């Protein structure tokens, strides 16, 4: 007789976890953060409410992990492109960010998380640790590569340059002061990198 193995508890738990994350993200997009409930997430995922509370302390915690899971599923790679053309590589990244923020459903989910993080310190720490800091560090790595290649001035402030690139885009997105477009991203990119290219040319002139 063929021995029948009992289903793996770890496998069942992982299936339940994924079902909860996907259910939470779907409800976030369809109903919004305020309207959705832990009970609704549990019903949609086909699990008990206590199963959710065993892994997450609050609705905001499960919603954050749900959004993070959705982002990980959509991610193509672990780093920024490095073709040797810094401006082209950063333009590709900025355009992708603009496209994501212009997606009505995904933008609403991200806006909810950002707003909630303003009065939830634990959620704010998660946003910085798992979303903002990784993106900033990847950008800094790409900028360091450009410095080594002689495309940026050696004195370029690698720590603040990413803020100059991303800050205006998220400012316009959050406050909706004007439409968020690829052209706006290109303008920010050209202005930001142009300053450092001018500095580099000036230094070359001084040394000559």
TrEMBL record:
Protein's organism: Amycolatopsis marina
Which segments cross the bilayer? none
Cited InterPro entries: Homeodomain-like_sf, HTH-type_TetR-like_transc_reg, HTH_TetR, Tet_transcr_reg_TetR-rel_C_sf, TetR_C
- Return the protein name: Transcriptional regulator, TetR family
Task: Give a yes or no for keyword Endoplasmic reticulum in this entry.
Answer: no
**What keywords were assigned to this record?**
DNA-binding, Transcription, Transcription regulation
**Any idea which residues the entry calls the DNA-binding region?**
37-56
| Signal peptide start and end residues | none
Domain HTH tetR-type stretches:
14-74
Single GO term (MF): DNA-binding transcription factor activity
């Amino acid at each position: 007789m063929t021995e029948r193995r009992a289903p793996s508890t770890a496998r069942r738990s992982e299936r339940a976890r994924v079902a909860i994350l996907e259910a939470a993200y779907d409800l976030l997009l369809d109903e919004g953060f305020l309207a959705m409930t832990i009970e609704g997430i549990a019903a949609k995922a086909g699990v008990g409410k206590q199963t959710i509370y065993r892994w997450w302390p609050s609705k905001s915690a499960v919603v954050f992990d749900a959004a993070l899971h959705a982002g990980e599923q959509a991610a193509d790679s672990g780093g920024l492109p490095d073709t040797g053309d810094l401006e082209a590589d950063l333009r590709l990244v900025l355009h992708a960010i603009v496209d994501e923020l212009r997606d009505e459903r995904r933008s609403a989910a991200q806006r909810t998380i950002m707003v909630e993080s303003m009065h939830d310190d634990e959620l704010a720490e998660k946003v910085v640790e798992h979303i903002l800091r990784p993106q900033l560090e990847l950008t800094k790595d790409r900028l360091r590569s450009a410095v080594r290649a002689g495309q940026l001035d050696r004195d370029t402030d690698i720590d603040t340059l990413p803020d100059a690139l991303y800050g205006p885009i998220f400012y316009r997105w959050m406050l909706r002061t004007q439409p968020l477009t690829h052209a706006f991203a290109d303008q920010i990119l050209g202005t930001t990198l142009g300053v450092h290219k001018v500095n580099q040319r000036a230094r070359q002139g001084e040394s000559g």
